[in-house]
Design brief:
By secondary structure, the protein is mainly alpha-helical. It contains 16 helices and 2 strands. A hairpin with a 2-residue loop joins strand 1 (363-364) and strand 2 (367-368). Helix 5 crosses helix 15. The chain is globular.
């Protein structure tokens, strides 16, 4: 059965949606992708399922936060470059502002008891959101023994054997190419000339160098030049999402540059895990503390801004450069089968996120946290049975955390 053609929203409607998503995109990439699936494919029908999955496959093999890049791509499909910019920026901006405020509280006051109580209530709800997303995406993706096996292998390889994410993706693509049937894809027009990509890459360099250069010229090189260099480099090696790159960032930030202490790094991760937006926003927290320890709030603000800018500018430009090629690549013989294999592996990757969060939330020094497990089960049941919107689940979890702390 053919898919229903998508409806075309106005630019104002799209802006309102991207702002709403940026304000409510809790739960990490799995939950964020699931929210876009439910809102943009199932309910609003702004994009068809096949193109949504094709775009998701493309974003998964790029460095950077895949959920933000998926939003940027859909924004580009709907309204061109301005749509991509609005979607990509609004996906990050609300969470960045929230994390900036929480970073200041942690740095200036060191008393985040209320915030921690809220987070303790949010975390088991976040696991429920991830499990719901895992169920929804696996139902659409796992359609035979090969895809199920790929998902299981990806889960074991990443969750227990520490196999690099790019290697898992490459393996899944090769297996899909060889073992899965290749669907007949419609022919698409030849993609734009390479000159467009070169012009966009040149513009990216200008937009990166000029603002950072102005900051360095006015306030000096330390710690801003090393930050810009390091976080730009990190942005291009974040294959596999934030969890794949955070150990590397934490080691360099704490042990090499001494921008913050190990305890501060852990606190930043806890804050970033439960703010809206990509988990990789934790790098903004690192930049804030790097500046704070040098020159107080002014340098902390500049450090947070440079870090966020250097981290997310590449992800937007990678989509702008590659977006016109997505459908053309998907029309090549065998590519659809390879992408199906990759999507199956992504299910296993999402399962590792649920496993990681579960260990972090449920396993306490004094035993299992049965209360948090019960919150997850109840939240998952409510989400599946009554399809309660994610923001209401998040608010309920925050309330539960506050009540429990009392």
């Amino acid at each position: 059965m053919s898919e229903i053609a998508p409806s075309q929203p106005t630019f104002a409607q799209a802006v309102r949606y991207w702002l709403q998503l940026g304000l409510t995109s809790f739960g990490g990439p799995a939950a964020q992708i699931a929210m876009m699936q439910q809102d943009l494919v199932d309910r609003r029908r702004w994009i068809v399922q096949a193109e949504f999955l094709q775009a998701l496959n493309f974003c998964m093999v790029l460095p950077g936060p895949e959920a933000q890049q998926l939003a940027t791509y859909i924004g580009w499909r709907l309204h061109g470059v301005r749509g991509a910019l609005v979607a990509g920026i609004l996906f990050v901006l609300p969470g960045a502002l929230v994390l900036y405020a929480l970073s200041w509280i942690a740095a200036a006051h060191g008393d985040t008891h209320v915030v921690r109580a809220i987070f303790d209530g949010l975390k088991p709800v976040v696991i429920a959101i991830v499990l719901q997303a895992l169920w929804r995406i696996s139902r659409r993706t796992l359609s035979g023994p090969v895809t199920v096996t790929l998902a299981l292998v990806a889960f074991v390889a990443i969750g227990f054997l520490s196999v690099p994410f790019p290697a898992v993706i490459l393996m899944a693509g090769v297996v899909g190419w060889v073992w899965l049937p290749s669907a007949t894809a419609p022919r698409t027009e030849t993609p734009p000339h390479l000159g467009r990509a070169i012009r966009l890459a040149s513009l990216y360099l200008v937009l990166l160098i000029v603002p950072v250069g102005l900051v360095i010229a006015v306030v000096g090189t330390e710690p801003f030049l090393p930050m810009a260099r390091f976080f730009t480099q990190a942005a291009f090696v974040t294959f596999g999402g934030a969890y794949a790159v955070l150990p590397y960032v934490a080691r360099v930030a704490v042990e090499t540059f001494h921008w913050l202490s190990p305890e501060e790094m852990i606190n930043g991760l806890a804050l970033a895990e439960t703010t809206p937006g990509p988990l990789i926003l934790v790098l903004q927290y690192v930049g804030f503390f790097a500046g704070w320890h040098v020159g107080g709030l002014r340098d902390a603000t500049l450090g947070a801004a440079i870090t966020t800018y250097a981290t997310f500018l590449p992800s937007i430009f990678l989509i702008l450069i590659g977006a016109p090629y997505v459908q053309w690549i998907g029309s090549l013989r065998g590519v659809n089968a390879a992408m199906t294999g990759i999507t199956a592996a992504v299910v296993g990757v999402i399962a590792t996120l649920a496993w990681f969060l579960g260990k972090t939330v449920y396993l306490r020094p004094d035993g299992l946290d049965l209360f948090s497990m019960a919150v997850t089960v109840v939240s998952l049941g409510i989400a599946v049975r009554w399809k309660i919107p994610v923001p209401w689940l998040v608010f309920a979890g925050a309330a539960v955390g506050l009540i429990r702390s009392m």
